[in-house]
Amino acid sequence: MRGAVPCRRGAGGARAMAAGGRGWFRALALGVSFLKCLLIPAYYSTDFEVHRNWLAITHNLPLSQWYYEATSEWTLDYPPFFAWFEYVLSHIAKYFDPQMLVVENLNYASRATIFFQRLSVIFTDTLFIYAVHECCRCINGKRAAKDILEKPTFILAVLLLWNFGLLIVDHIHFQYNGFLFGLMLLSVARVCQKRYLEGALLFAVLLHFKHIYIYVAPAYGVYLLRSYCFTANNADGSLKWRSFSFLHVTLLGLIVCLVSALSLGPFLVLGQLPQVISRLFPFKRGLCHAYWAPNFWALYNAMDKALTILGLKCNFLEGTKIPKASMTGGLVQEFQHTVLPSVTPLATLICTFIAILPSVFCLWFKPQGPRGFLQCLVLCALSSFMFGWHVHEKAILLAILPLSLLSIQRAKDAGIYLILATTGHFSLFPLLFTTPELPIKILLMLLFTVYSFSSLKSLFRREKPLLNWLETIYLIQLVPLEIFCEIIFPLTPWKRHFPFVPLLLTSVYCALGITYAWLKLYVSVLTERIPVRQKAE
Amino acid sequence: MEKWSLMALTVLLALTVRWAVSLGSYSGAGKPPMYGDYEAQRHWQEITYNLPIRQWYFNTSDNNLQYWGLDYPPLTAYHSFVCAYIAKLINPDWVALHTSRGYESQPHKLFMRTTVFVADLLVYIPAVILYCFSLKETSAKKKVSSALCILLYPGLILIDHGHFQYNSVSLGLALWAVLCLSHDWDLLGSVAFCLALNYKQMELYHSLPFFCYLLGKCFKKGLKGKGLVLLAKLAGTVLVSFAACWLPFGTDVEQIMQVLRRLFPIDRGLFEDKVANIWCSLSVLIKIKNVISPRTQLKLSFAVTFLSLLPACIKLTVQPSLRGFKFALVSCALSFFLFSFQVHEKSILLVSVPVCLIINEIPFMATWFLLVSTFSLLPLLLKDELLLPYAATTPAFLAACLASFSILEKTSAEDLQLKAFSLSLKGYVSWFKSFPRIVRGLFLLSLALMGVLSVLSAAVPPPQHLPDLFPLAVAVVSCLHFLLFLVYFNVVILWDSKNRGQKKIS
């Protein structure tokens, strides 16, 4: 589908270009959808059962029991809109296999069930495809390349539609991120198109589908306040306080309140709000997931482990006093650090807040239009990923996908994107640990990485290289790391005593890259000067 | 973007699709007592690993030929032996004599799939890539998009990585032979073709064009001088490569005769199952199998095949050209498929791969043919529960062809290489102006028909007194298509005159 090269001759060139434009997008979207269909028989994780359970719960039980039902260990822990979404799906599901809608049928996975659940992900991805289409439209293609393969919009469409992370998380591991990211990208596109109310509405809805998107809410809040509630700037780009519009604030507030009322209202009436909240924010789950997401805490934990070992060697510590829990053993549990101070949820919250703050200030004081908004959004997502409590490795997609939009506009961002996307995607590898999926994940990863490198390189070939030598070496070393973790390590005797070593290595190594990308992006945003031309806006 | 990274992406995409298809079911999964082709290949590994080479093709107490006896030439047997050797290293149960019969497990499936994947990666894919790079008078983009379409051809992927066979080896070797011939390395080409022939005897479908092309080349060089030398060299090469392949069996005549009997089982009947050739389609009207004696059937099919081959072969011998050679490969293989004795539905791949070779010359017709050929495999794929990969890869292939060749705009007589033919018809036919539109309409109609039949055979249970209704309908519809394609390819071959080149110069 890469070779979409419509060569039309003669008159009506513009129209032909437009038709060709539709053609390549359709080919890309169709191609990836068919690939998703091919992945239907692949491995799926426990998330498959999670969603089946939710289908059953919402189908059979009254609203008042949705957040109390606990037959399965996978209780409903997404906001109400997602529950309603499952409710709607369940009414289609009954035509496929009514057995999957029985709450007691734990781990039920008939052929029809698999087929239905997989197809539901593929079909809801239509929203994602539409959102990508809108994003491609709002990215201004100043560089009118003759070659369709070098058009920024084409590259963006591939980077988003064929995103490795989304493919494996949604269509192999099993989740519904596709349409959720569709909502997010659509709201981003609407905000960029200055259709602020629509953007705000979409984002508010999104928040009530999956609350993880609260990570990026500060960017939305500040940007909408700055660009929508205040209607004008001073000549030097600073805020004109007098331009404050009460109407706009009221409208925004109304939208947010209405959406929240629609979602949480019924539970408020039933008096179940505390229960819903406690399900949504399970702080008992521990600092890190079973597999450490490659963030600051992974480095912190690794440092703690290293110091422990060092301390034991040098007899600073007594072996008997050390708790025996190993975090990567596979269970979600609370964990005591031995040398470094233990981290509480509040501490992570404060760290996250501090990390987000500069980017938000930057958005307020150095408004740069949609680009500044996107930068702040990515920084919010990344900062929360770096310091959040119980972060999943999948959350990195929250930063990678919006950064794709930036990557095709400036060489600097493209370089950061390549580092972040490659390490972030690599850190998703442990999600798929079954042997039949090993070739698939490697091939898909190569496909996406080769494409992103070669396309961005050719897009910015007139500028200096996207990556310096250190970054290049860092990324290349992912290859031996993967070979070691997947092939060499299982053959060594260490496998039995230290089964967590591959995971630990992967998450620490990726954490370095992601931290680096985060810092680099931060530095580039903070040191950036406002071009004079933009002040007029 | 650079040519190389585009080609790398193409290959990666092709590999991804192959592995994704291989996640699905295979032929005879969980269907005792006979299972399917998967078990056949595993059984051959068991036989070749455990028995001495002299017993491979003989019915003994350890080798029941009724149960998937080896019926492919020696190279397949050697390949099985190598695979068995690796299998033994991983898990000896997989190839244990007798006890491993019907062995099925997830790791074993993974192993078998990997062997096909590796064979494809080593033989077929490099041949396709090199072939596309060696195309003349085409832009880099066109080369890449040809490679993309060829590598995404669903028929071969579904049969090899879904149903389970090693067609990519023999077809890949044949491709290597074509590649060598197109670089004028005739000896190397004939070695490659001999290897292909010794991997699967079905490669005989391709043998006549190879023979006629090389013979014609010798004639062209003059049979008294250089031509004779070349002919002698070629004959020698063929003999040596055959001898090398058959060396372990060459000890006595009985061995060779037994292998040959296994390779050409003339007692199996005119056709098997519901195959989209002329005999099966005719049997809807007349039960040929009952009317004519098996001997006569053999003679009849031989005669018809020979007659249908004749024009293309004579033309190629008289005017050997690379382009003619590729078209002759298509038309000869198609003739064999349609008219010869004991044809399998999978043999259509032998036609499809040469069609892939001319996809950049006649993208519209090639795509059409490749779609029909995949459709003709539908009953087999349904039996193997490969409906999902079929339904995903076939439209994806169509989308790839549409995007890379915009085939719907290439339906004029010139694009279909029918210019010469239409010129010779001028004056007799008046509807030629609307020819492109008619062709496009026919194409869409045929697509719709195939789509409807696919949905029907997948979703609707057949009426009770006609259990074979849909497979038969698929066979007949495909057969009609193939007949038209045969006529088309023969017309292109016969009207392809040298003045094409001259016109371009003037």
Quick rundown:
Chain A is mainly alpha-helical and 537 residues long. Helices cover 63% and strands 0% of the residues of chain A.
**What fraction strand of chain A?**
under 5%
Structural class of the helix and strand makeup of chain A? mainly alpha
Share of helix of chain A, binned = 55-70%
Largest sheet of chain A: none
- Note the main sheet of chain B: none
The general outline of chain A is globular
Family (chain A): Belongs to the ALG6/ALG8 glucosyltransferase family.
Pfam family, one (chain A): Alg6_Alg8
GO molecular function (chain A): dolichyl pyrophosphate Glc1Man9GlcNAc2 alpha-1,3-glucosyltransferase activity
Pathway (chain A): Protein modification; protein glycosylation
Structure notes:
The complex is a heterodimer of chains A (about 525) and B (about 500). Chain A has helices at about 15-40, 45-60, 80-95, 110-140, 150-160, 165-175, 175-190, 195-205, 215-230, 245-270, 275-280, 295-315, 345-365, 370-385, 395-405, 410-425, 435-460, 470-475, 480-490, 495, 500-525. Chain A has about 525 residues and is mainly α. Chain A starts with 12 loop residues before the first helix and ends in a 10-residue tail after the last helix. Mean pLDDT of chain A is about 85; it is low at about 1-20, about 325-335 and about 535. Chain B has one domain (about 5-30, about 105-495). Chain B contains 23 helices and no strands. Chain B has helices at about 5-20, 35-50, 75-90, 105-135, 140-150, 155-165, 165-180, 185-200, 205-220, 225-245, 255-265, 280, 290, 295-320, 320-340, 350-355, 365-375, 380-385, 385-405, 420-425, 435-460, 470-495, 500-505. In chain B, helix 4 (about 105-135) runs antiparallel to helix 5 (about 140-150) and helix 6 packs antiparallel against helix 19. Chain B is globular. The model of chain B is unreliable at about 500-505 (pLDDT under 50). Chains A and B meet through helix 1 and helix 17 of A and helix 1, helix 4, helix 5 and helix 19 of B.
